[in-house]
Amino acid sequence: MTRPISLLFPGQGSQATGMLTQDLISTYKDIIDEASNLTKIDFISLINNDPENCLNKTSFTQPALLLTSYLYFLKFKSIVNINPTYMAGHSLGEYSALVASDSIDFFDALELVHKRGLLMESAPKGLMAAIMGLELSNLKDICSSVQTQLESIVSCANLNSHSQTVIAGSELAVNRVCSIAKESGAKRAIVLNVSVASHCELMNEPASLFSDYLDKTNITIPSTNVIHNYSAETSRNESEIKKNLVNQLTSSVKWFETMDEIKKNDSIVIECGPGKVLQGLAKSNGISDILSITTDDFESKLKDFYE
Fold first, then answer.
1. Other C-beta atoms within 10 Å of 16: how many?
2. What distances in angstroms separate CA 224 from CA 9, 17, 75, 101, one per listed residue?
3. CA-based angle 300:69:112, to the nearest 5?
């Protein structure tokens, strides 16, 4: 019996110079060229050479990752004749999932995430930090207490697993939470190298502006179930999908709840995009059958599950 497949699409942090492989370039050159013309970004130069050190800048990272993940999805479709049961994307990756599920046209999504990145860059400066080994309820209490004491924004941004949570907010508040978290038993508290503080109230104004822009974008019901970051649930309503995308900017990414939903399905999980971040998070959430579309032996490993 054929096992179901779930596709996961990575978000910011998975980008890397050279992630647009020669195989992808030669196979999908027309799509890359059209994407470059649309956004006025030379994606091949940006991704494989990064001459102006822009790849880690949010307004460039987001369209570059969407493009690369979409091309890997096209590669997946060319070698796997199985429709995924679920799709999900971490933060920005939710847009890749919606494109792959025919909910948003790829080129519309490309313009959308480019605008999203520009708006996020306009938000007040802040930090994000990964907290390992502290109960979520404890960390939420610390964030709430620090936010009240300092009158400065900080909250849980990425609920990655039961042992790893990323916080986001103002520099002062994030650093204070890191200190208290370590005093409270956290194994590690690491400030992340990111250019914006996502999924917190620092994004309130960008979210409001993005909502107006999103309203003009055509979004339809996905052909495959997409689990949303904001709700950790699927949606069959176009307006609800748009609300989820707006709320995602200011609210927590409920990733371990997403993984719990996928585990119920007992599916083979495939990371469809560059890097191995989501493979690691899937393992930490108790999922064992995980593959990456980027590995040379992907096809043979996938076949092993069906023999």
1. 14
2. 14, 31, 18, 5
3. 160
Task: Name 30's Cβ contacts closer than 8 Å, sequence gap at least 6.
Answer: none
C-alpha 266/C-alpha 165 separation (Å) is 25
The residues carrying an active-site annotation are: 91, 199
Q: What is the pLDDT of residues 124-181, one digit of tens each?
A: 999 999 999 999 999 999 999 999 999 999 999 999 999 999 999 999 999 999 999 9
Token digits of residue 61:
């990272």
Report residue 165: phi and psi, to 5°: -130, 140
Contact status, residue 158 vs residue 202, Cβ threshold 8 Å: no
pLDDT at 292 over 70: yes
Q: Edge-to-edge strands of the sheet including 127-132?
A: 154-161, 164-169, 127-132, 188-191
Which residue matches tokens 């179901």? 4
